[in-house]
Amino acid sequence: MTATPPPYRLVATDLDGTLLRSDETVSERTRAALALAGAAGAAHIVVTGRPVAWSKHILDALDYRGLAVCGQGAQVYHAGEHRLLTSVTLDRKLAALAVAKIEAETGPLHLAASRDGLDGELLVTPGYRFQEGPRPPVPVTDRSELWAEPLNKLYLQHAELDDDALAQAARAAAGGLVDVTMAGAGIVELLPLGLSKATGLSLAARRLGVKAADTIAFGDMPNDVPMFAWAGHGVAMANAHEELRAVADEVTASNDEDGIAMVIERLFA
């Protein structure tokens, strides 16, 4: 008897607001659903905006051993081997020029810089509101320190503009130099031009021998839009940003209500 092929061969999930619940855990139901997909022959891959340095402790806690796409697509990381397979860096001169162009339109920005590498530090300028992570950020007062070593991304915040308005202003001022995306509350990022989660996911999928049409993707923020465009099927969480919901093939329950599990159970049962 010939085994029935799985409806999808790759299950790609964002982390924050998608796979992780609000307390940064994964429910037993979601774990069981991913195991169900695995038993049917589908691989699970994490695709996160977090750089490796801010992802690996979570992946280790989940006992995740496969490939992960980190840093908004800049890094392909082998979690089981704790090894960085590919890494794309942001041109620092272009980044500095982009910041200058944006500030000419918006006024002063609060900045943070994510350094490249497995243990890349997060540098923050005065006023930047950072999220607690596996290690404390490094405060800097001299902006030249931001450009001193290779970066995978820059983070922008503004004292008055909200995230949507800041992202729009950044694209208008510097969209020809860098890519601009929004990955969460207070997280507007400058990336290498042409880089997205879809870039990194396509590289990882090629390593796994899986095509876009055989991939189902789950996400919650505008930075997941390129991943949905690439994948065969895109599922937005109920808590997703309206920009992502608008391009999703379907909307499931929230990250705190086992939204991923509901879809996988339906498709792979």
Describe the structure.
There is one protein chain. The chain is an alpha/beta fold. The strands form 2 sheets. The protein has an 8-stranded mixed sheet with strand order 5-4-3-2-1-12-13-14, with helices on both faces. It has a 6-stranded mixed sheet with strand order 8-7-6-9-11-10. Helix 2 packs parallel to helix 9 and helix 4 crosses helix 5. The mean pLDDT is 95.
Largest sheet: 8 strands, mixed
Low-confidence stretches: none
Strand content: 15-25%
Helical amount among residues, as a percent range? 25-40%
Number of strands: 14
Rounded average pLDDT: 95
Please give the radius of gyration in angstroms: 18 Å
Number of DSSP helical runs: 9
| Distance between the ends | 19 Å
Order of helices and strands: EHHEHEEEHEEEEHEEHEHEHEH
How would you write the strand order of the largest sheet? Answer: 5-4-3-2-1-12-13-14
> What class, by secondary structure content?
alpha/beta
Shape, per Cα inertia axes: globular
Give short descriptive properties of this protein.
eight-stranded mixed sheet; alpha/beta; 14 strands; 9 helices; 30% helix
